[in-house]
Amino acid sequence: MAITFNIRFAVIGEPETTQPFLEGVDPIMDTDKLKGAIYDLKKSTIFKNVEDSSSLVLYRVSLPSGSYTSDRVFSEDDTMPQRVMTGPVSNHFNDDAEKDEIHIIVRRPKGSQTQSDPGVSDALTPSASITPEELNSRFNSIEDEFYSEDWSEFIEAYISDNVKLPVTDGKIPGLPIAWRRVGKDRRASTHRPSLLFFDLPDLDGSYMNPDSNSKAREILARISEKNYSSYPIFGASGCGKTRTVMDMLGLNWGFYFNGSKDDRGSDDVKELVSLVETRLGDNLLINNRITKSITACLLLARVSILSRCLTVSNGRMTPSKWMLLQVCSQVLGEVHWKDSRPSRTDLFLSLFERMANSLGKFDFLSLNKLLRARFDILTKVLPGWLPNDSKFLLILDEAQSLGEALPDQFRSEQDNLNIKRPILSPFFHGLEELSEVPSQICTIPCGTGFCVYDLAWVGVAGKASKAFREVLDDPRFKRAGSFPRWDDQAKVKAYFRTIDLYLEKQGHPTSALKLKDLINDQVCEMLYAWFRGRLRPMISVIEDVIQYGDAGQWRKSIMQLMSALTNPTIEESGNLCYELSRILKQILKDGDSGLKTNADIRENLRRAVKNKLLFGKDYKLECSEPILVQASFARIVDDLGKEVTIIDEPIAFEAAVNYFQKDDPGLIQLLGNGLSDAPTPGSMGTYMEYFSPALLVPAFHEKPLVPSLFKVKANGNKTPEALSTKRFSIVGCNIGLRGTRHEFITMSDFLDAHCNRGSVFKSELVSPFFFPKENPSGPDLVFVLESGGQYYPVFMQSKISGHLKDIKEAHETTCYDCIKAHLESSSLLANFCSENIFLSLLFMPYHVQGRYSVAKDNVITINKTTKLDQYTMIIDKNNRGDLFTKGLLEFLEKVKEPFERYVFTTQDVKDEGELDMASGSNKGKMPKKTSNMTQAMEDIGESDQLSRPNKRKTVESEVKGNDEEISSGSKKRIRRVPKSVTTTQVVKGSMIIKPIGLEKRRMSERLANAAQVKENDGEMSKPRRSNKRRAVEPIQASEEVKPNGPGQKKKSKKSEETD
Fold first, then answer.
1. Which of 127, 432, 764, 768 has its Cα between 20 and 30 A from that of 593?
2. DSSP single-letter state for residue 963
3. Could you tell me if 504 and 473 lie in one domain?
4. Per DSSP, what are the bridge partners of residue 619?
5. What pTM value is reported for the model?
6. Structurally, how many domains does the chain consist of?
7. Residue 593: pLDDT above 70?
């Protein structure tokens, strides 16, 4: 009799309790005909959405004879497809010819599956049925085999303190070393410490520095007080999250997992992701079940190892010792086995792999019963465990990594919510199954990205749902989210002084003395100024200093680290620009999720950059915005009971500047847009003053001085010999700041900070540009050039245009007599001038003059022993092309028109002296621009809110060019009025732009409005008289009239009389 096959087939995604069966299949039947027979058998039900049998895919699988019943489903090891079936059936089942039945799996084309619960007999579920007794027996066998090997020896050696973290040698020996799982720093140097593991608690839980674990104690107290089952922790990269959760585990029993591929901890979570990925199918709920089964194996491995440690420890196993074993499992394994076992040193990974391979095929419900039973046994022997009061912590560090892994391969577990999720969702819910009593555990996801995309949806289902909502509603949660900050310099100093004490305690007093020399108060001050709020960068710099044993290393390390964290071309985790780009892409992908739009995030950062670069102000949002925290740019703080988002760290501003400069070199578009926001030509002038650093950076930073700056004809317009071979940089230009003002720092302290103190004043970084007081007369702007450790102060005066007399007066404000009036002593300037040289700079980008008498070099005699050389640089229209990029030149031309337009108007008021008016006569005055920072910020629409600023109402109309007769005393003249000529008035603090009319009636109206201001706002400062200029020449725009205040020039007596 001819041999035939009996075939049972299962269709992926279908929950039928009795699988379809085909009898008497001829082995010579072609696979395509077999597809037709299967299709015909179930075309009205399972295949009703499949067009024809040709789209089906058949896989050969094999199960033991008779084992396929309604309560026995395919496990992965047995049934995952061995190959796709093609050709004659006999090619695939010859080996099974004598079996009662053979098995295949049928996959339908995508999009044709029905939406149904997979049930317990779906062909792709990983869960084979098993009795509790058999499962427990398998678990015991795995344990017995594992601990019979040398892993048991390793555990006992660790508990007996025969296996410890290695320590440094070199110039500063005795500090702990712990490398990451994978990375360039892996065992790279025995000289470099890992200060993350410094000052871990002793056996009694005490610390050398009592404040070391203050944040951990605060969070644990909050969890206990509120009985939280879940408590997410997030914060900016490097703020100290990992050390905080380590301290929490040093005080409280728990498990530490790490979602990253190359960070601290075991590789077991990384292996879990890989295992799940190989088993994924089209049914998302089945994928959830697979993940939960393997997560149960992960937890079983941890429960087993902790139980073993407690059994052999004789009371020596503490939470702190258990924490260190979990966080440094690979390091400790390598220390124990050295090079004899390089491929397998991870204790937790080794046991997890065995658990997953043997037990991962079974249904997660069965595995969870075993897990809970084993955990219940564990809690009975845990030292200090109180069933009704204790919390067992389940910490997932770097949780954002799982939030991005295997996206859209899983489904939300909330009822009737067909939303796709990454692996973080089923993994997190799998952790919740550790205990039968939810109040006994607290799951703690920790990371930078675990605040927006994950918090909201991870908590919508499962046991932690209520707990998540409670946490998110708890106002104090934001304080945990704002995260541990070294918020004063004293804490930084205390930390490093504790290192000295630690070295002395470890028997290295000489190392302690050397360390004091390497890390003095100035280094602590610099670290705090650059990285306040960021634990990891500060520690990284100190690790560099200790590794190289060089007191000067910290400057180089700070610059290298700033570049690594803020360079937009570096696409690595931790780089702020990369994190921002990643988040913006995620928001774009989840556009319908109700998250902030890309424009919102970018607009907030634009405002923050503009505030800082132009006005030296930090940025505050009057709301909590965790997305900015997630990108490591901001922190959330409690401000008088209100949650606000603060961007105030130098590293954040530097990253934001670099991010925008990728597409906007020099930030011309970002900063230049303020001119269009400025409602008056006067505020445009103020804005231009604050914008000038953006013009000076590309002209002077990291390049030699351009010879055409020096317009001394006798020298052939060459760079002075003393400066000709040097390459200069603007001191402090790479700290994410631009300008500071006399209200915050004196000129003497500004120069001292940049020339002598590493750009730090009172533990704060000092901006590279300084705006001095207006009274007494002096420069508009001050900065310092540096070359080879030598410093050259530069004093600048800007002049949009003017006559020779105006230029001469402008130059005088940058000379010694005016400068010394801003210093604490007349001889102080020499202290900041290397080679006794300082520079004057006239910024006149629209001036076309070829010769300047003020350009000659000057020698100033300070006293009998000290002389200073003054060199004058001039930027005018002739040489600006040598200094500025095309974009900057276009910007300058764009700015020119509003200045000229306003100048034409104001010149008519003052050009001929007195104007005959209906109400009397008045000598024309042109208002002098002030530099009141607050008003200027208001003028450009600076706002701390998300919404765009409320702009002042303006009225501007065109005036057609025509000839008008202008009265000026007894004289008359004719001139052409240009289009869009405007004049500016202040009416009760609001700026109004009105069309110019030069008839007497409109002049009277203008004076009447000015009188109204005086009546309503009190005594006002009068316009200062300027030097007489021709109407056709552009001059610096005037700002609106403001009341007298600190730093403003007083009214002259003559100007008071003319009002």
1. 432
2. E
3. no
4. 647
5. 0.63
6. 6
7. no
